[in-house]
Design a protein that fits this description.
Helix content: over 70%
Largest sheet: none
Number of helices: 2
Strand content: under 5%
Keywords: Membrane, Transmembrane, Transmembrane helix
Distance between the termini: 101 Å
């Protein structure tokens, strides 16, 4: 039965069992496609370090943005208070 397509209805029991085993092995251990090249295992720690660095960079950027937004809110609040004081004393 090697590399031959046999009609399942015309298979013997032994051929059918072998065919089932092959199908089961194919499902359990699919071969990776040729164009999909997985990276070797030594690069995996590099990838985790790279992800950790990216996450740390994102956290630093977030903290910096929070600080800038807080200062912007404070500045706008002070500007509103100054405008009200000017309008109160001028008007």
């Amino acid at each position: 039965m090697k590399n031959q397509q046999i009609d399942p209805e015309k298979m013997t029991r032994q051929q059918y069992r072998e065919w089932q085993k092959q199908q089961q092995q194919i499902q359990e251990n699919p071969e990776p496609p040729l164009d999909d090249v997985s990276e070797p295992t030594p690069l995996q720690p590099r990838q985790t370090v790279k992800k950790a660095q990216a996450q740390q960079l994102a956290e630093e950027k977030t903290a910096r943005l929070k600080r800038r937004l807080n200062w912007a809110i404070l500045g706008l609040s002070l500007a509103i208070i100054v405008v009200y004081l000017i309008l109160f004393f001028v008007g």
